[in-house]
Specification:
Two copies of one chain form a homodimer. Chain A folds into two domains: 55 residues; 65 residues, Winged helix-like DNA-binding domain superfamily/Winged helix DNA-binding domain (Arc Repressor Mutant, subunit A, Orthogonal Bundle). The radius of gyration of chain A is 29 Å and the shape is rod-shaped. Chain A has 143 residues and is mainly alpha-helical. Chain A is 70% helix and 0% strand. The structure holds a DNA duplex (30 and 30 nucleotides).
DNA sequence: AAATCATTCACCCGAAAGGATGATTTGAAG
DNA sequence: CTTCAAATCATCCTTTCGGGTGAATGATTT
């Protein structure tokens, strides 16, 4: 970042120097001001693009790979018609729990969980829980 | 994209016009050429940054929301002792394929896949494939 | 009141997954 | 040449999943 600004400053200084030199030596009377401005514009546009790239390029954070704030895509959630309870099952499913474990955690019977799961598979267009989880992540329903 | 270029052109024209107007009206004798160049430079740098953003902004691909750069954590990969073949199974597993499908895709028998899977579960300290996938993601072994 | 939907639970059955164990082959390392 | 890990496949057995179907209850909407 600091290096980027430094390089930018240097290139800027160099460009100014170059332009001034050219101006006083050869071009002052030969080139119109419009062309002059044009050259400067193009140069600094390129510079700006390059800078923009450097600045906005995310640095890789090693400890928190895909951390960052996860926001549930409510729109798709309603579009798919997934209910609250079904979503709870989906979450626990994604954590790798078995249906029985999910049932225990939600204080319902195994059959109930299986029903919710089946509905989820339909709504997420998948036949297996691994697929359903994959799909839910794609749809930003779960982190 | 075309819109971006159009807007860029318009802003550029406007800037040139503005500068020329200012030049002929007030500033020609009062501001030195350096300051003049500086103003142009800053303007076009900002323009360049904005353009760079527009151009390089990946369009949202609906199926791959949190795409972005994924780099396999090789260190952990060797630490866990997961072999090439096992990793291949893991990848396909994460895609939601069944063991049979994985077997077909890798041209091996179902039993082989199951063996690899079992080894994976041990190395990833999990009993279920959903758990294994979850764990692998945590360890940055898969995206 | 009737229709709709979410939630709950049940039963059955076949497919898929997982655990345990053993065996063969092959390529790399010592 | 031996040793070892990786990769391959097998068998047996248990558990978990998933599909299909049906049904009761309660809340909300029409």
């Amino acid at each position: 970042m600091k290096r980027t600004i430094l390089i930018y400053s240097l290139v800027l200084a160099l460009a100014v120097f170059l332009l001034k030199t050219l101006e006083y030596r050869f071009l002052f009377r030969q080139l119109s001001a419009e062309i002059y401005i044009g050259i400067i514009g193009v140069l600094f546009t390129i510079l700006g693009i390059w800078m923009g790239q450097k600045i906005t390029r995310k640095k890789k954070v090693f400890v928190t790979p895909q951390a960052g704030e996860f926001k549930v895509n409510e729109k798709i959630l309603t579009e798919t018609g997934i209910s609250k309870r079904e979503y709870e099952v989906l979450e626990l499913m994604a954590k790798g729990l078995t249906n029985q474990e999910i049932a225990d955690k939600l204080f319902v019977s195994l059959n109930t969980v299986k029903t919710h799961a089946s509905n989820l598979f339909i709504k997420l267009q998948s036949n297996r829980r691994t697929q359903a989880i994959q799909r839910a992540k794609e749809l930003q329903l779960i982190p």
